[in-house]
Amino acid sequence: MKSKITLAAIAFIIGSGFAFAQDANKIPRVRYEARLAFDVSSNTGVGQFYDTGAGFTAGGLAEIQLPKDFYFSPGLLLYYTGWSMDNSRLEALKLYSGSASNWGLRIPISVGYSIPLLTNLTMQVYSGPWLNVNFSARQTMSAAPESPYEDFYESNLFRDGFKRVDAQWGFGLKLAWDDHYIVGVSFGVGMTPVRHFTSMHNEMTQRRNSFQLNLGYRF
Length: 219
Hints:
This protein is mainly beta and 219 residues long.
């Protein structure tokens, strides 16, 4: 059901963008932004397993000008996230300490609004769904002191409930200086689970929440 809601939201925003462009009765102006971001990721539902993680996103976005200072912005961003595991809990259970990592491609689809502040400074606010396509999700663990388990273990998390696709809802704000240089922040709130698994006979659902500090250059 949630997946259907996510797809419906994406379809609605894409349709709205094209409708706005057609109403403008002219070819919309298209700009492109190269973006690099520092990414901080937290997880709900599995706080006792993973600490706050860090990584990066890098890629590009299009900015299609719409009427009345609105714009439509799809993009493609490669992302990496690494989480450390909650070692104190795992060591108390004489299990493992270690980390997890995730590579993937993020497809943000946003509608935004531009607000001129100064002659060469513009603020833009935007919102829309993010679709995350996960390429790799691995967990590496080493034995805790006095653990009865093997010294080193690496697992493919796709075999343990990690999803190939998950969705977030994104919000962002950026400042564009001299119409080219961009700095901003963005947030992504987990809409669908990134992982569902069983641990110690308990059903666990992991959702991804993200915060980025963004630097960009617009062509």
